[in-house]
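step: validate -> pass
step: tokenize input -> pass
step: predict -> running
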Amino acid sequence: MAQLNVNGRHFDVQAEPDTALSRNSAHPPARADAEGRHGDRADLRLLGRCRRVMRVVRMTVAATLLGVATLAYAGEAQQGWQELFAASQKDKKGLMFYVKGQTIAGVVTKVGGDAVEVRNQTYGRIVIKLDSIDAVAMN
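step: predict -> pass
step: emit ->
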């Protein structure tokens, strides 16, 4: 520590520059002024770190909210599908299932916990997993 006298006031300052803030930087270490501050470069580095942390926090919050919204929407979609399955089974009306880019037409014969069973003119029994269904349409 070194003593510094500025306008009659005494300050204790480090004789060696503090390299902790600038160790990973391409800039030379900043020297402390009379009040122990490291100048604008250190402030800008700190501000940059705060911005990076806030960006990570915002991304985490957005991802969490998106996940909750997706789960809520998936629940609503399952509810809508169940209504269409019941109507098809009751009225013997055909549905169009969109599964991974393919379309499957059929009438619902049975609804299970994780699958729906349909039949059409070509096949007497088709089992479709609910997880693989992208969309369902009814005329």
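step: describe -> The CA atoms of residues 115 and 130 lie 5 Å apart.
step: cleanup -> pass
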